[in-house]
Design a protein that fits this description.
Structural class: alpha+beta
Strand content: 15-25%
Radius of gyration: 25 Å
CATH architecture of the largest domain: 2-Layer Sandwich
Number of domains: 3
Shape: globular
CATH superfamily of the largest domain: Ribonuclease H-like superfamily/Ribonuclease H
Largest sheet: 5 strands, mixed
Distance between the termini: 49 Å
Oligomer: single chain
CATH topology of the largest domain: Nucleotidyltransferase, domain 5
């Protein structure tokens, strides 16, 4: 909504034009509208203080301060969302439902030990293994293998690590675990609406699949760094990326107000065909000037591309566009990987999705199994 205060209106325009750069929570740099430089805006004892002449000599609240306040309010609105809390499965009797249970020895097999419990009410003995039924390996072994793999280890390196822990499995078994549980977690994660900001970024990265060049297109939220959606395509600038835009809006429950991309024509086409509106105030502003010499940079997106590239180097190449590895990278990036740029938090935490428990992988898998919309298919596509 346009403000009646001219300075506030100009500040809103600066914020919308990506003119506010956050250095820290109490220090911002704001682009001048009259020259190619920036003003420092800092939090003082009595509020925001700007270094521009309007604020310094006239003592008035300038447009740069308004721009920072608007940007700050948008950021706080994302942080203030009521979190969705994923809790680990509570221990109760699987037969009578009573919560009066106690540990009762271990069940031994060649892959590890599984804790058994006894019910104080009905006296029956059982093991709690939700999400890992009929799996020979323990949940701890499986989740540890996935954590190792997505932090950069190869399948055979994971196999060697598990062998040192007394678990003798093949690298093929490790990959089957990844295929099974990535599909489960990805579908469940897509059902959780993240609290993302109104500024999104999109970019592409080339990948080798059986010697052929493919492109992975991704959509990421600017504030939380939440990887919202992905799409694999054959070409860079001419592939139809409307499914990416459609999926991102469906998962986030909204479309952005600002979209940042490079100059590829297909991003502009998808924005126009998927998010176009006749009401000018509801249109998505598309910022396409993100080259090194441009006014806007896409460093956050390039950092995420680096994660993908590091994983691909270990694998040397992918085998199939339907590989679970790409979805697994998205799940790991959002739910499990702490980011220095987010002060050690995961994108999910910043987007209002809290995962409790000592083993977050186990918590997510158990919640996914109990989710009624999850498809429990057993197909394991090749890498």
């Amino acid at each position: 909504m346009q403000s009646d205060n001219p300075r506030e209106a100009k500040g809103e325009a600066i914020a919308n034009e990506m003119g506010v750069r956050r250095i820290s929570d109490d220090f911002y740099k704001v682009k001048s509208q009259s020259g190619d430089f920036e003003y420092d805006v800092r939090m003082g004892e009595f509020g925001w203080l700007c270094a521009c002449p309007d604020s310094t000599y006239r003592g008035s609240k300038c447009k740069h301060t308004w721009a920072v306040e608007i940007s700050f309010r948008l950021r706080e609105a994302v942080r203030a969302v009521v979190p969705k809390i994923l809790k680990p499965l509570g221990l109760f009797c699987k037969f009578c439902g009573a919560d009066g249970i106690k540990k009762d020895a271990l069940r031994h097999n060649k892959y590890g030990d599984i804790q058994r419990y006894a019910c104080k009410v009905c006296g029956k003995r059982f093991s709690v293994n939700v999400g890992f039924e009929r799996m020979k390996a323990t949940p701890q072994t499986i989740t540890s293998a996935m954590q190792l793999y997505f932090t950069g280890e190869s399948l055979r390196s994971v196999k060697k690590f598990l062998k040192l822990q007394g678990v003798n499995v093949s690298h093929v078994a490790v990959y089957k675990w990844i295929g099974k549980y990535v599909g489960l977690m990805n579908e469940y994660a897509n059902s959780l609406t993240p609290s993302v900001s109104d500024k999104w970024r999109t970019d592409e990265i080339y990948l080798k699949m059986r010697g052929n060049t493919k492109y992975l297109f991704a959509m990421m939220d600017d504030e939380t760094r939440f990887w919202i959606a992905q799409q694999v395509a054959d070409n860079k600038g001419i592939s139809d990326v409307r499914p990416l835009f459609r999926q991102a809006a469906e998962i986030a429950g909204k479309k952005p107000k600002v979209l940042i991309s490079d100059g590829a024509y297909n991003f502009a086409t998808a924005n126009r065909k998927e998010w176009w509106t006749h009401h000018k105030g509801d249109r998505v502003r598309h910022v396409r000037d993100i080259r090194f010499g441009g006014e806007v940079h896409n460093n956050k997106m390039e950092r995420m591309n680096g994660e993908i590239r590091d994983r691909e180097k270990v694998m040397r190449s992918l085998k199939n566009p339907q590989t679970p590895i790409l979805k697994g990278l998205q799940v790991y990036h959002n739910l499990f990987r702490p980011h220095e740029g987010l002060k050690g938090k995961t994108p999910a935490q910043v987007a209002g999705i809290q995962i409790e428990g000592e083993n977050p992988w186990l918590t997510v898998i158990q919640n996914a199994v109990q989710h009624p919309t999850v498809n429990r298919g057993s197909d394991h596509p090749k890498t």
